[in-house]
Amino acid sequence: MTWAVAVSRDAGRAGRQALRGLRGTGEEGRILPNRSRAQLAEGVTEAADAGDPILVVGGDGTLNLVVDALLAVDRADPPTLGVVSAGTGSDFARMFAVPSDVEEAVEKAVHGEDYPTDAMELTGEWGVRRGLNVFQAGLGASTVGWADRLPRWIGPIKYEVAFWLALPTFRPGSFVLEVEGRSFEGGGLVVVAANGEFFGGGMRIAPKASLVDGAFDMIVVDAPKREAFSLFPRMKQGLHLTHPGVRRVTTPWFRLTTEPGWPTEVDGEFLGSSPVEGRILPGALRVRI
């Protein structure tokens, strides 16, 4: 079997280490060209068309690019995906306790079991984008924008630093959130549609989320900005669901409108402004863990 290896341009030596790890397990691998996002996406699509499993070496942003490319085409069988954590956040990998050692992570991807995993589809002014972990609108997406401006050497805590930079300038607004069977209105800070539990370098935003239940875990923070000082520490540990300004609901689809338009992001990648519609794609991928 030949693995197509999608390596982040920020992953350093991790790509070569991944190839060495594959050879150590008796597998073959080839690194996909990555001079641009479009080139990497094209290589991922061609590899999936050939039936090759994909090994992602990078963080959540690289994983999102790969997932978006894989799911842009309807396939009879879900593609197989292995994950090697080599990014700043790597929040999706955190759910599966992927080893930090590259060669250990490769061995787990090769010899692990296939885990059918839901994905997300998000439609807005950007067109259609697929994702795997967490979508956000509002303050959380503004935080991602600030994090992108910070130097990489800060590491995972850059999301925490970015949150406090984003808070003073973020403009709360009103929102209407439609989900299966009901709708909500409010004036809040953030709306999260989670498939996975973590975002922002380990913040447990959706502690009850599941990758296999066919539903978003929606977290709505309908509270004034001053509540952020007490909410943020609780969110880091997943203890915020009992806060009176936090509402949770599960749904296979949602429609969100806001006034004014809020920034949005998925898996740490900026999308555009609301409104947005989302739906879950049940069992869309096989993650080899």
Give a brief description.
The chain is of the alpha+beta class and about 290 residues long. It has helices at about 15-25, 35-50, 60-70, 90-95, 100-110, 140-150, 160-165, 230-235; strands at about 1-5, 30, 55-60, 80-85, 115-125, 125-130, 135-140, 175-180, 180-190, 190-195, 215-220, 245-250, 255-260, 265, 270-275, 275-289. The strands form two sheets. Strands 1, 2, 3, 4, 5, 6, 8, 9, 13 and 16 form a ten-stranded mixed sheet that branches.
List the helices and strands and how they pair.
Layout: E1 2-7, H1 14-24, E2 28-31, H2 37-49, E3 54-58, H3 60-71, E4 80-85, H4 91-95, H5 102-111, E5 114-124, E6 127-131, E7 134-138, H6 139-149, H7 158-166, E8 173-179, E9 182-188, E10 190-194, E11 216-221, H8 228-237, E12 246-251, E13 253-259, E14 263-266, E15 269-273, E16 276-288
Parallel strand pairs: 1-2, 1-3, 3-4, 4-16
Antiparallel strand pairs: 5-6, 5-16, 7-10, 7-14, 8-9, 8-13, 10-11, 11-12, 13-16, 14-15
Helix pairs in contact: 1-5, 2-3, 6-7
